[in-house]
Specification:
Oligomer: single chain
Number of domains: 1
Strand content: 5-15%
Structural class: mainly alpha
Radius of gyration: 18 Å
Order of helices and strands: HEEHHH
Shape: elongated
Helix content: 55-70%
Strand order of the largest sheet: 1-2
Distance between the termini: 23 Å
Largest sheet: 2 strands, antiparallel
Mean pLDDT: 85
Number of strands: 2
């Protein structure tokens, strides 16, 4: 059922990764004194920078797809793990890029967009915990029959 708590967690995670992340700043460039958003990275020359928006949107789509798999809890759980892995890779990529930004020693202004994957991971872990709880409940009822 769609109104379960794990669906709420997955919906919030999907909204964070797909809607909020493109609208918040990742970091501020010292030279142009402008904020860098996720959608700005699509026009970048580096493959790593182009991968960030793709990973954010892939994370949002997989979390959204997992919501509608409530009848197949095992697949829903696996897709939750996939979202966690995507976001862990995204966190690592963002940390690497933030440490190698040019002019990093002069200014260190990171935006809230750097924390979005961490919040998504937290929400998906809570969703997976609720999915596991449902699966255990169903298995216990099957044993009683």
């Amino acid at each position: 059922m769609i109104q379960r708590i794990q669906s709420i967690y997955l919906l919030i995670a999907s909204l964070l990764a797909g809607v909020l992340a493109p609208n918040v700043s990742l970091w501020t460039q010292e030279s142009a004194d402008a904020s860098v958003f996720i959608t700005d990275l699509l026009s970048s020359d580096q493959i790593a920078l182009k991968g960030i928006p793709v990973l954010f949107f892939a994370s949002a789509l997989v979390a959204l797809a997992a919501i509608f798999l409530f009848k197949n809890r095992q697949l829903q759980f696996v897709l939750g793990r996939v979202v966690i892995l995507i976001n862990l890779f995204l966190v690592g990529l963002l940390i690497y890029l933030s440490l190698t930004l040019s002019g990093e020693t002069a200014v260190s202004e990171k935006g809230i967009g750097m924390l979005v994957p961490i919040f998504v991971i937290l929400l998906v872990v809570l969703a997976n915990k609720a999915i596991r709880k449902d699966e255990d409940l169903v298995k216990s009822v099957d044993r009683l029959r």
